[in-house]
């Protein structure tokens, strides 16, 4: 019974209980797809039905992860997809802390999207934060919650994904030369500008796009848009 409730798995050669990072990343990718579909359904179709089901699953799943990850549905799905891959072990303690942060975000979202439906930009922002955390974990194996773990816990995390918790010297293939640095910076600028230009030029077809445009556009630009609309309506009235 004690082993049943033990958090993480005993793995020969490791001094702490471990989890399989590969199945955690696979699970994060599955949840990211669900969150993305819920967001696009809300923006494009104006319905939150998919999000309500997904957030319910998300909250239950992360609660299971914190209590006993052996039985968390998304982790079991992730295990199915990576069952033929060599496990990549990660310390269970920091993953539990990171998943606890996800659970703390999940239950308020459940309340405001399922029980007492009150959508607003702040709740959308929380969803985007969750999506960002899932994306970073699935795409780059970067666990931001694990990094916070090291800031608040006296005992530092060990056996992190990619051995980032252990001090080491970067290999030549991991370093950037000056030209590569310039390319990365220009790419990042182009991506941020593209996202900004896209959000500010979207047609005002949903409440979300209206609010996002209002947040990201200057007062002068908003006034110019309103003036153009007024002029267009005046011309239409003349006809």
Keywords, separated by commas or semicolons:
single chain, 239 residues, mainly alpha, two-stranded antiparallel ribbon, 2 strands, globular, DUF4395, transmembrane helix, membrane, transmembrane, DUF4395 domain-containing protein
How many domains? The number is 2
Low-pLDDT stretches? none
Number of helices: 10
Instruction: Please give the alpha-carbon distance between the first and last residues.
Output: 81 Å
Structural class: mainly alpha
Overall 3D form? globular
H and E string: HEHHHEHHHHHH
Helix amount, in percent?
A: 55-70%
Strand order of the largest sheet: 1-2
Say how many strands there are. Answer: 2
**Rounded radius of gyration (Å):** 22 Å
Mean pLDDT: 82
What proportion strand? under 5%
Description of the structure:
The protein is mainly α and 239 residues long. It folds into 2 domains: 167 residues, no CATH class; 61 residues, no CATH class. Helix content is 69%, strand content 3%. The protein contains 10 helices and 2 strands, in the order H-E-H-H-H-E-H-H-H-H-H-H. It has a two-stranded antiparallel ribbon with strand order 1-2. The longest helix has 25 residues. The mean pLDDT is 82. This is DUF4395 domain-containing protein. Keywords: Membrane, Transmembrane, Transmembrane helix. InterPro entries: DUF4395 (IPR025508).
């Amino acid at each position: 019974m004690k082993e049943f409730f033990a958090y993480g798995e005993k793995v020969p050669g490791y001094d702490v209980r471990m989890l399989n990072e590969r199945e955690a990343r696979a699970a994060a990718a599955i949840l990211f797809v669900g969150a993305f579909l819920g967001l696009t359904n809300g923006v494009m179709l104006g319905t939150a039905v998919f999000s309500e089901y997904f957030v319910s699953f998300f909250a239950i799943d992360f609660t299971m992860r914190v209590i006993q990850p052996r039985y968390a549905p998304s982790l079991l799905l992730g295990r199915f997809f990576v069952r033929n891959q060599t496990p990549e072990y990660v310390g269970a303690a920091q993953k539990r802390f990171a998943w606890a942060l996800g659970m703390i975000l999940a239950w308020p979202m459940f309340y405001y999207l399922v029980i007492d439906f009150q959508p607003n930009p702040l709740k959308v922002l929380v969803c985007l934060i969750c999506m960002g955390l899932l994306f970073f974990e699935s795409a780059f194996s970067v666990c931001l919650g694990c990094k916070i773990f090291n800031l608040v816990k006296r005992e530092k995390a060990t056996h992190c994904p990619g051995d980032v918790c252990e001090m080491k010297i970067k290999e030549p293939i991991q370093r950037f030369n000056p030209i590569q640095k310039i390319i990365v910076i220009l790419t990042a600028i182009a991506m941020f500008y593209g996202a900004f230009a896209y959000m500010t030029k979207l047609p005002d077809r949903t409440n979300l796009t209206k609010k996002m445009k209002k947040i990201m556009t200057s007062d002068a630009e908003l006034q110019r848009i309103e003036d153009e609309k007024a002029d267009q309506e005046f011309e239409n009235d003349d006809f």
